[in-house]
Amino acid sequence: MHPFSKIEKKWSKTWLETDIYEPDLDKAKRPFYNLMMFPYPSAEGLHIGSVRTFSGVDVYGRFMRMHGYDVLEPIGLDGFGIHSENYALKAGKHPKEHAKESEKNFYRQLAYIGNGFSWKEKLETYDPNYYQWTQWIFTKMWENGLAYRAKTNVNWCPSCITVLADEQVINGQCERCGTEVTKKELEQWFFRITKYADKLLKNLDNLDWPEHIKTAQRNWIGRSEGAELLKLKYLQLVPIPSTEQLIWFWHQSMN
C-alpha cells in the first residue's frame, strides 16, 4: 500500500522549507491573486468542508502557475463571525482567546494538506495590525455619510442570538442550527450601497461568473426602475412582468 502519510509529511515539510510557493511580487511579470475564504477558528481544527473548498481553489492556482503566472495564494484565519463566537462561548472563552489557542493546530493541518499557500503572507483578522485597517475603512465610510444606523425588521435566530440574512433562512429555519426564525425590530448598521448601484450592476456584466451568481448579486444590489400602475377595476390578479409571480391588486377611484 502506498505510504501516503509518510510521503505527504516529507514533501509538505520540504515545500515549506524551500518557499516554492512564495512569489517575488516585485519581479513578477504576470502576478495572479488567488484568494480563498479563510477558515473560521470555530472548532479545534479544520473540517472536511474546509479541505474541499481549499482544494478547488488550489487546483485553480496550480493551473494558473502552469500557464506562467506568479500566483500569490495567501492563507490565514478569520476570527470574526457567529461561528467563532458561538464556539468560544460554549468553551467559556473569549473568541480571541480561543482563536489564539487553536491557531497552531489549524496551521499545522493547513500545512499538512500541501496546498500552495504563501505562508509569508498569512494573517489573522483578529490581529490589531490587520483590523485597524478595516476600522479605518469603516471610519471613512462614516465620515462620508455611507454608513448609518436605522431601525428595521430583521430575521432573528434565538438560538444563535444573531441576525440572519434572507439567504440564511431555509424554510423558516436557521441554516446553522435549525431553530425557527422570528422577526424582530432592531437598530442596525447600513451601508449606502445603492448609491453605487448603476456602477456595480454595469461591472457585473464584465465578470466571467455563473449567471445564477450574478443574478443573486443583482438582487442584493436591489436597484429598481419603479412600478407601472395599470388601470384596473376593483380586485384583479395581475402578472408581474419578467417574473412568474402574480399579485392581487385593489383599485378604487377617488374623486
Summarize the topology:
Layout: H1 4-18, E1 31-33, H2 48-66, E2 70-72, E3 76-77, H3 82-90, H4 95-112, E4 123-124, H5 128-143, E5 147-157, E6 162-164, E7 169-170, E8 173-174, E9 182-191, H6 197-204, H7 211-221, E10 234-239, E11 246-251
Parallel strand pairs: 1-2, 3-4
Antiparallel strand pairs: 5-6, 5-9, 7-8, 10-11
**The top level CATH class name of the domain at 4-126:** Alpha Beta
N-to-C terminal Cα separation, in Å? 88 Å
Going by CATH, the architecture of the domain at 4-126 would be: 3-Layer(aba) Sandwich
Compute the number of strand runs.
11
Uncertain residue ranges: 246-255
Mean pLDDT: 85
Q: Can you summarize the main beta sheet?
A: 3 strands, antiparallel
Enumerate the strands of the largest sheet in spatial order, edge to edge or round the barrel. Answer: 6-5-9
Quick structural gist:
With 255 residues, this protein is α/β, with parallel strands linked by helices. The chain has helices spanning 4-18, 48-66, 82-90, 95-112, 128-143, 197-204, 211-221, and strands at 31-33, 70-72, 76-77, 123-124, 147-157, 162-164, 169-170, 173-174, 182-191, 234-239, 246-251.
Key features of this structure:
disordered C terminus, two-stranded parallel ribbon, three-stranded antiparallel beta sheet, Rossmann fold, 7 helices, 255 residues, alpha/beta, 11 strands, single chain
